[in-house]
Specification:
Elements: E1 4-12, E2 21-26, E3 48-50, H1 52-62, E4 68-72, H2 78-90, E5 94-98, E6 114-117, E7 135-138, E8 143-144, E9 157-158, H3 161-166
Parallel strand pairs: 2-4, 4-5, 5-6
Antiparallel strand pairs: 1-2, 1-3, 6-7, 7-8, 8-9
């Protein structure tokens, strides 16, 4: 199995509410969204290898303050991404995936706490725009977190039936993936 590659590794404070995230911008995104702010990451040959050993080394240096690991992409190499998500879970870290897909591939759901879905559409804006097509979900709490990012923040909203379908779940399935 070919490992993922990452262009940048950062510690972020705003991408996942309530968490300090170790973030990896994964290279090789096949979507090519017009206006993408990370177009330099599209080339899969760019960046450094991100295998289990590399991730563990990075976590050893940052685990005293990092509470979440965020993968910006990588779903196009599901086996490699799943291996990394499992490492994060064994270290009891929250996990997040920013995906340009409209639906979450089911194999990731048991290993994710947060997922952002939806391609970048310039006219609709990102999470700070109430009209955005992108959605950030807290899978453990059953919430859509978009309102937290709006210019006048509002409380997070319960996940709707439409959200569940977007996540590839039937309404009863969510109970298996959220905390009471």
């Amino acid at each position: 199995m070919k490992p993922l590659r990452f262009l940048t590794r950062d510690v972020l404070l705003q991408e996942i509410p309530g968490h300090v995230s170790l973030s990896y911008l994964i290279t090789g995104c096949p979507l090519g969204c017009k206006g993408c702010h990370s177009a330099d990451s599209w080339d899969a040959r760019r960046g450094e290898s991100l295998d289990i050993t590399t991730l563990q080394r990075h976590l050893e240096h940052s685990q005293s303050y990092v509470t979440c690991v965020l993968f910006m992409g990588g779903e196009w190499q599901p086996e490699a991404l799943l291996d990394l998500l499992r490492v994060c879970k064994t270290r009891q870290l929250a996990t997040a995936l920013y995906s340009g897909l409209d639906e979450c591939p089911m194999q990731f759901i048991p290993y994710l706490d947060f997922i952002k879905l939806g391609p970048w559409i310039t006219e609709l804006g990102g999470l700070a725009s109430p009209s955005s097509n992108q959605r950030l979900y807290d899978l453990q709490q059953g919430l859509c977190l978009n309102p937290l990012f709006w210019p006048t923040p509002l409380p997070a909203e319960p996940i709707t039936t439409a959200d569940l379908l977007r996540l590839g779940l039937k309404p009863p399935d969510l109970a298996c993936h959220t905390a009471d």
